Amino acid sequence: MTIAFESPDQPDVIALVADLDAYQDTLYPPESRHALDLASLKQPDVLFAVARNSEGQAIGCGAIVLRPEFGELKRMYVSPRGRGQGVARKLMALLESRAIALGCKLLKLETGPYQHEALALYASAGYERRGPFGDYTNDPLSVFMQKHIG
């Protein structure tokens, strides 16, 4: 497996993000989904990483949007064929390492209460629950977390 910073504008990565969207569509209504689109993922303030299996297929992705006071973890996803191999942890480690190198000291995220594996992963990686931040509002279908880094 390889994990590297790549452009999200690649057919297999676009398909991976579409799989994430389709999965979240089964869990949450549109008004409770706060996803970044492809154009947003290509902005200069976004770190975007892709995990690829030994055949070079995209099996996971994640992003951090760098803001002045914090970074926001977004678009974390590992396809079913890539699960159980530590892909998400390795993606987060690379993203956090780059964010630290760029001076980021705090990461925040929003996820949903029905994504039990994601909640467990974030908690085990040191993320703690907090209230809404930025433009988010209190929503029973949102869970907010943060982690001090660096």
Automatic annotation (TrEMBL):
Gene3D superfamilies: 3.40.630.30
Keywords: Acyltransferase, Transferase
InterPro entries recorded: Acyl_CoA_acyltransferase, Bact_Acetyltransf, GNAT_dom
Keyword Acyltransferase assigned: yes
GO molecular function list: acyltransferase activity, transferring groups other than amino-acyl groups
SUPFAM superfamilies from the UniProt entry: Acyl-CoA N-acyltransferases (Nat)
Taxonomic lineage from the root: Bacteria, Pseudomonadati, Pseudomonadota, Betaproteobacteria, Burkholderiales
Residues covered by the N-acetyltransferase domain: 3-150
Pfam families linked: Acetyltransf_1
Protein name per the record: GNAT family N-acetyltransferase
Recorded coiled-coil stretches: none
Native species: Trinickia fusca
